Amino acid sequence: KFNVTQSTPGSLKLSYSRTSLQIPLLVGFNIGFLKLNAGPVFNLTSNEETSINHLGVKIKSKKIPVGYQIGAGIKLGNMILEARYAALTEKSEYTFSRKGVTKTVTPKKDYQLLFSVGFLF
Length: 121
Prior knowledge:
single chain, mainly beta, three-stranded antiparallel β-sheet
C-alpha cells in the first residue's frame, strides 16, 4: 500500500496491487543431507490495479522480467526444510502521476525470503 499526500491538508489512501507469476529455473545438487540450489526466476505480470482511478491517479510500474534465487535446505528422512533468497536483477520503480505532477518511488527493500517444508512420498 502507498500513501499519497496532497498539497492541501489530508491525504489520499491508495491501494495498489500487482498479480504476477514467478517461474524459477533452479539448478541444484545434494551433499549428503544438504541441498543447494540457484538460478534465474522469470516474472510474468498479469494484472495491475489501483483503488482510486476515479481521482485521476495513474500508476506505472517498471516490469522486470528476470530475477534470481539462491537457496539451501536439509533433508530429514522424508521431510525437506528449505530457505531461499530471491531478488530482482534491477531495482523496481513505481511512477505515480496526477494532474501533471509525477513522482517515482523505489522500494528500499526489494527481495523475498522464502521458507518451505516438503514431504517426499
